[in-house]
Specification:
Shape: globular
GO molecular function: catalase activity; heme binding; metal ion binding
Strand content: 5-15%
Bound molecules: protoporphyrin IX containing FE
Cofactor: heme
Largest sheet: 10 strands, antiparallel
Protein name: Catalase
Number of strands: 12
Keywords: Heme, Hydrogen peroxide, Iron, Metal-binding, Oxidoreductase, Peroxidase
Order of helices and strands: HEEEEEEHHHEEEHHEEHEHHHHH
Helix content: 25-40%
Structural class: alpha+beta
Organism: Pontibacter ummariensis
Mean pLDDT: 93
Length: about 525
Amino acid sequence: IENNKNPQGANGSPSKSGNNGQEERILTTRQGHPVRDNQNIRTVGNRGPATMENYHFIEKISHFDRERVPERVVHARGAGAHGVFEAYGKVGDEPISKYTRAKLFQEKGKQTPVFVRFSTVGHPSGSPETLRDPRGFAVKFYTEDGNWDLVGNNLKIFFIRDAMKFPDLIHSQKPDPITNIQSAERIFDFFSGTPEATHMVTFLYSPWGIPANYRQMQGSGVNTYKWVNENGEAVLVKYHWEPIKQGIRNLTKKEAMEIQAKNFNHATQDLYEAIERGDYPEWELNVQIMSDDEHPELDFDPLDDTKLWPREQFPWHPVGKMTLNRNPEDYFNEVELAAFGTGVLVDGLDFSDDKMLQGRTFSYSDTQRYRVGANYLQLPINAPKNKVYTNQRGGKMSFKTDFAPGQNKHINYEPSVLDGLKEAPKPAKEYTPRYEANLVRQAIDRTNPFKQAGETFRNFEDWEREELISNLSNDLATCDKRIQDKMLEYFTQADEEYGRRVREGIQMATEKMMKMKKEMMGTDGPMGNTSGEEGV
Ligand code: HEM
């Protein structure tokens, strides 16, 4: 009996081969033993007690007891799909090789397999997909030179620009450590001490904070990266995914609540069903390019991820298209165990000095060694599709050795003259940036925290601004006056009208809350939601 055949056949339909597939579908243990009774544990008489040598039962139940790994500390709730990336080979009218030597981009029509995971950020793995939250947009490219992960979000910017602050940001967004309830006051307490977050807060509390689903949203690498060409010359780049076929759609709070009343999984379901019916979502990958220097002429630092690079000055150049065309066969193996990280680049792509990017790059693989295990890169979803030959051995759940053909299998070190693995040849021109500065702990100079927040506020359509004001006002009305005052100061600095409208909104929401409280005190006693009306 072959125990590793897909019981549904390769394409999901019942297997047709021999004996109507009966023999091939026989249940076995992981030891390959046929299971002759899957209903009854072995007992002394049919009323028990049970014996300790119930091997099949103990294997079955103890595997079940271990069916979960810790959920991601952020981005726990997600959905994923496989697909393909097709390169255009150009940046505008120029060959892309002028900017990068990364092989996946060079030839027009060159295809690279991808796996994508979309997610919400702050909420646990079973939470509704209608909650206000940035959305994660992580893409793994299985290139001929190894994997490239582009780990981004839908809002193009972020709340903070220094990785030191990330645990504090996330603690403020997660539930209160005593009540285990998310609290608007804790969230805005952090934001009121973090002026650089004002721009992202402006996006998040607008309808852009609740994309209609995963197909109809943009994606962005957010952090600044570099491209390196054959001459070892670099430029700064930012990446953006544009949903070219599906368009962009965001929800009002009311629309989101209506969906949430009926369905916690609408975005996962939407993605899965679209792919099943052959309506494959597509995104075009765009890059913005800047020369590799500090750009003193700009009123922001190109390495500051709280800022957009203005599109008029730094146009979006389409460089390829991604199509998602295959659902996972096993959610856990493919989506839950997928491990993306900002350190995973291929030749021709490089890091910038963006401090968030540097901090992120440590965090991802660190958490994955804890969440999935030391050998997380041996799992099929994470392993590259090109050849892997390493001297790494051992560790929990190591199940194969990366031998090269003809390699001396005794040699798991380098250098060696005894037919071990050898270093790859160096590129003709390496990129070797030069640094000269004092080692310091200091913020960047051009912080400019409010200007782009004001521009984003003014660029919104009327209904988006109205949603923004109402969402902010309702949550801020539940906060300490000191927090309200600080946030109002920030919004006013961004745009006078923005500040004024939120101030009026807070007043109205407070009066409404007082009235409701009075009514309830008169009837059922003091009750009510003091943590704002919705999750973030
Ligand atoms: C997931 C850390 C900033 C996008 C994660 C995870 C960690 C983390 C620990 C869980 C990974 C896992 O368990 O596999 C950090 C740190 C940051 C940071 C320390 C800042 C210093 C950002 C930013 C973005 C982002 C700015 C958006 C551009 C994502 C995405 C995921 C993720 C999309 C989910 C990946 C997946 O689907 O598996 N982050 N993050 N993160 N992060 Fe970040």
